[in-house]
Write a structure and sequence with these properties.
It comes from Glycine soja. The chain has 341 residues and is α/β, with parallel strands linked by helices. The protein has helices at 28-35, 52-59, 76-84, 102-107, 120-135, 138-146, 175-188, 201-216, 230-236, 256-261, 279-288; strands at residues 7-10, 16-20, 38-43, 65-68, 89-92, 111-113, 167-171, 191-195, 224-226, 239-242, 267-270, 293-296, 315-317, 328-330, 337-339. The two termini are 29 Å apart. Bound molecules: 1,4-dihydronicotinamide adenine dinucleotide and 3-hydroxypyruvic acid. Residues 95-96, 116, 119-120, 123, 171-177, 195-198, 243-246, 249-250, 271-273, 297-298, 320, 322-323 line the site of 1,4-dihydronicotinamide adenine dinucleotide (NAI).
């Protein structure tokens, strides 16, 4: 795309020019910008991932700000182009901002925004969905059924892992990791072990209170532990879910050596960022350990998967959909429903 051809313009006479590299859900953001005297240009190109060159063409000679996407490489080149065009702000429509070189933005005097906190429950719910799907072999069983292979109930058909009483391990117990941990502890009465650079006091308090509640009701209380090392989580947990940010310290956090430390029948879930796992090493591990299962929402080189992954029955793969949910808000007037999108 040498020159952007497909653009939708809102409020053509607006004083400030803001570019959105993609159409986004709803109209509230559009109205907000228009109210603030913005001429908004939304790129409506069919191409899913815009290149740096495409975005430079969109920025043009005068641009006050850009709203971009996690698929774009916001580094030196783009911040330099935005700054030359008079731009002062870049907003990443994502919680994760590993695609943004914040140092480069600072160098060119461009303020950076992201959307922390808006996807906590939806991402945790997808991680929980992948956990259940992997534990109970839902995708394999669905394929079996549709292939017409079911010829009657059998005691050993698609035996999976029962979650109750097992240990869930969370790596990165921030907003999403903590929400996921609560779902698994409260929903399935799992014990918790977590690893994070910081203590997750609220999570610990929640599990302690829930354990007391179970005990008071004559049930086995759940337990929690903050691990001193990540390897402790890998060795002890039956389910491990990854929720750290992606940065230099978490790149290939799960590699060949660490996979080998996990239980042979463990389940690994990744709804953070693909490069947190060495995906080629994961493919090898899955091949040699058929009882080890994985649920992935994110991949090392999206939109691609490493060779061999798609053929493996012990892998569940979905196309980065953790954010893709809509919320129905019931107003005080029960007859009016509002959708987030
Ligand atoms: N799949 C999807 O659609 C989505 C993915 N995400 C990803 O989830 C990530 C986490 O989001 P939040 O929970 O909101 O962020 P957060 O900042 O609340 O939590 C991240 C946690 O990771 C921990 N951490 C950082 N380095 C670590 C290390 N080396 N080892 C262990 N823990 C480490 C931090 O201390 C923090 O507690 C985002 O950065 C983003 O990449 C977020 C939203 C949707
Ligand atoms: O917001 C994020 O970080 C996402 O990955 C959205 O899907």
């Amino acid at each position: 795309m040498a020159k952007p051809v497909s653009i939708e313009v809102w409020n053509p006479s607006g004083k400030y020019r803001v570019v959105s590299t993609k159409p986004m859900p709803g109209t509230r953001w559009i109205n907000l910008l228009i109210q603030n005297d913005v001429r908004l240009e939304i790129c409506t190109e069919k191409k899913t991932i815009l290149s740096v060159e495409d975005i430079i063409a969109l920025i043009g000679d005068k641009c006050d700000g850009v709203i971009g996407q996690l698929t774009e490489d916001w580094g030196e080149e783009l911040f330099s182009a935005l700054s030359k065009a008079g731009g002062k702000a870049f907003s990443n429509m994502a919680v994760g901002y590993n695609n943004v070189d914040v140092d480069a933005a600072n160098k060119y005097g461009v303020a950076v925004g992201n959307t922390p906190g808006v996807l906590t429950e939806t991402t945790a719910e997808l991680a929980a969905s992948l956990t259940l799907a992997a534990a109970r072999r839902i995708v394999e069983a669905d394929e079996f059924m549709r292939a017409g292979l079911y010829d009657g109930w059998l005691p050993h058909l698609f035996v999976g892992n029962l979650l109750k009483g097992q240990t869930v391990g969370v790596i990165g117990a921030g907003r999403i990791g903590s929400a996921y941990a609560r779902m698994m502890v409260e929903g399935f009465k799992m014990n918790l072990i977590y690893y994070d650079l910081y203590q997750s006091t609220r999570l610990e308090k929640f599990v302690t209170a829930y354990a007391a509640f179970l005990k008071a009701n004559g049930e086995t209380p759940v337990t929690w532990k903050r691990a001193a090392t990540m390897d402790e989580v890998l060795q002890e947990a039956d389910i491990i879910s990854l929720h750290p940010v992606l940065d230099k310290t978490t790149y290939h956090l799960v590699n060949k050596e660490r996979l080998a430390k996990m239980k042979k029948e463990a389940i690994l879930i990744n709804c953070s960022r693909g490069p947190v796992i060495d995906e080629a090493a994961l493919v090898e591990h899955l091949k040699h350990n058929p009882m080890f299962r994985v649920g992935l929402d994110v991949f090392e080189e999206e939109p691609y998967m490493k060779p061999g992954l798609a053929e493996l029955k012990n892998a569940i793969v979905v196309p980065h959909i953790a954010s893709a949910s809509k919320v129905i808000i019931i107003n005080p007037n029960p007859y009016i429903k509002k959708f987030r999108y």
